[in-house]
């Protein structure tokens, strides 16, 4: 029995040895099973590698900004622009020069100079609240006293230092109304100003009781105390026309 088993095993071993050296290839069932298992394992490894996800590439950390004590904004806002250079303050606008008043049109046969002087008398009356009748009396008085010219006095050399339109010789009488500084009418420098001289005349006229009811020549004489009291009367018609026409030109406006 033992011999028979050895014989069988010896035959099997011989068969395997022959398979390795002989021309015919006889695969042992044991070897075939081992090879099959190895191929199955290799196939399984291939499938396993195919299904396995590729590892993600390593993350590279962004370079950190230098720490200067301030955190960088997550909005990546652009850096603030430097303030624009301040413009120098604009130069103040210069006021346009006021237009010169329109030149008056001469009236009632008067010259330009006489018309301007008459207008000054009328303006002074308007400023002092004098009615038109008082303006007529004042213009007529100046027509008699100075022919409506702002006269200096040869007797009073000081008067010639101020703007004037001719001279006279009647003591120290000066200006449109020939008022005398020695009689208390005022300083020479002021009496040579047409509106001032007219204002002084109106102040005297308004103190005369009932002046607005008197004939023109009497009202004028009450102020002037002239040696020729009737001399003012002939000037009333022209003086009336002068006042009316200059008022129409708007001499009291502005």
Would you give an account of this structure?
The chain has helices at 2-21, 29-51, 112-127, 132-146, 188-191, 194-206, 216-224, 236-248, and strands at 152-153, 167-168, 173-174, 179-180. It has 254 residues and is mainly α. It has a domain at 112-248. The chain has a two-stranded parallel sheet with strand order 1-2. A two-stranded antiparallel ribbon has the order 3-4. Helix 4 packs across helix 7 and helix 4 packs across helix 8. It is elongated and about 165 Å long.
Structure at a glance:
The protein has 254 residues and is mainly α. The chain starts with a helix and ends in a 6-residue tail after the last helix. It has helices at 2-21, 29-51, 112-127, 132-146, 188-191, 194-206, 216-224, 236-248, and strands spanning 152-153, 167-168, 173-174, 179-180.
Compile the SSE list and pairings.
Layout: H1 2-21, H2 29-51, H3 112-127, H4 132-146, E1 152-153, E2 167-168, E3 173-174, E4 179-180, H5 188-191, H6 194-206, H7 216-224, H8 236-248
Parallel strand pairs: 1-2
Antiparallel strand pairs: 3-4
Helix pairs in contact: 3-4, 3-6, 3-8, 4-7, 4-8
Gyration radius, to the nearest Å? 66 Å
Order of helices and strands: HHHHEEEEHHHH
This entry's quaternary arrangement is single chain
Fraction of residues in helix: 40-55%
Per DSSP E runs of 2 or more residues, the count of β-strands stands at 4
What amount of the residues lies in strands? Answer: under 5%
Number of helices: 8
> What kind of sheet is the major sheet?
2 strands, parallel
End-to-end gap: 162 Å
Mean pLDDT: 78
Overall geometry comes to: elongated
The SS-based structural class is: mainly alpha
Spans where pLDDT lies below 50 across 5 or more residues: 1-31, 65-74
Strand order of the largest sheet: 1-2
